[in-house]
Amino acid sequence: PVELAVSTYRKLGLNEAPGVPDFNRATGALGQTLFRPPTVAGWAGGRSWITPGLLLERGNFARDLLFPDINFIPPDRRNGSREIQSVARRIRDGLDITTATQPSNIGEGQIMAESNMLADRDEDFNTRYGSFRGWQMAIEKVKPIPRHTARLDFSGDVLQQELTSTTEVVDYFIERFMRVAPGADARRMLVKFLNEELGTSNIEEAQTYMEDALRMMVHLLLSQPEYQLS
Fold first, then answer.
1. Residue 157 class from Cβ within 10 Å (0-12 exposed, 13-18 middle, 19+ buried)?
2. Domain tally, the chain
3. Which of 68, 170, 205, 228 is the most buried (most CB within 10 A)?
4. What are the C-alpha distances in Å from 87 to residues 8, 146, 153, 224?
C-alpha cells in the first residue's frame, strides 16, 4: 500500500506527498501503517494486500487524492479525547476551571457522586485540566504537517500533448499510469465515459471545462485491477 501511494504520487508528477488525504490514514485503510506492523514478523504481503474490500479502498484512495475532501480535519491538530474536548469547550464558553473540568458525563442539572466529589477535592493536581494544557502546549510546540492538496492540471497536460480527441486522451493516460494496459472493453468504457461527461469527443471544444471530467476518468483508470500491477 505504501508503495502504491508513493508510486501514484510520482505518476501524478508530485514532488512531495500531499497533506490531504492524510498519508497514514490512507495507507492504514489499505492495510499498512508505516512502523506499525501487525506482528513482529511484519506484514504478510503478497496476495493478502488485495481483497475485494481493499480493492475498493484503493479506488477510494485515488478518489480522495483527485477530489480532496473540503471538510478534512487534520488528525494531528484535533484531539480525539472526549474529556479534553469537553474541557476545551467549557473553558471557551467562559466557565471556571472547577466547573470546566468536571467529568463530561455529568450533564447540566446532574449531581456527581459524593465519592467522586471527594476524590476531586483531595486531588493535588487537576488531571483533566493538566491533560488539556498538555495537549494545548503540544499543539503550540509541534510543527504541523503541511496540509496542501495535490496540485494537478490534467487539462494543461492534455493541451500540452496536443491531444485532439477523447480516444487520444484515454490512450495517453493509460500509457502514463498503467504498466499493464486494461482490456479493450475497459478502454471503450473509459472513452464512452469521457465522451458523456464532456458532451463531445472533440477536446478543443471542451478545453475550458474538462478538468473535472478528466479527473473522474483518471479515477476510473486508477481503480482498474490492472493498476494494482503498476
1. middle
2. 3
3. 170
4. 41, 27, 44, 47
pTM of the model: 0.81
Burial, 114: exposed, middle or buried (Cβ in 10 Å; 0-12, 13-18, 19+)? exposed
Asked if 197 contacts 172 with a C-beta cutoff of 8 angstroms, the reply is: no
Evaluate whether residue 110 is within a structural domain. yes
Do residues 157 and 228 both lie within one domain?
yes
User: What whole-number distance in Å separates Cα of residue 61 and Cα of residue 64?
Assistant: 5
59, 27: one domain = yes
Domain end (from 50, 72, 94): 72
- Does pLDDT of 50 surpass 80? yes
Contacts of 53 (CB under 8 A, 6+ apart): none
C-alpha cell at 8: 501514484
pLDDT 10s digits, 137-158: 988 898 889 999 999 999 999 9
Q: Within this chain, do residues 57 and 26 fall inside the same structural domain, yes or no?
A: yes
pLDDT in tens, 65-79: 999 999 998 988 888
166 in Cβ contact with 193 (< 8 Å): no
91-110 pLDDT, tens digit per residue, is 899 988 878 887 766 554 45
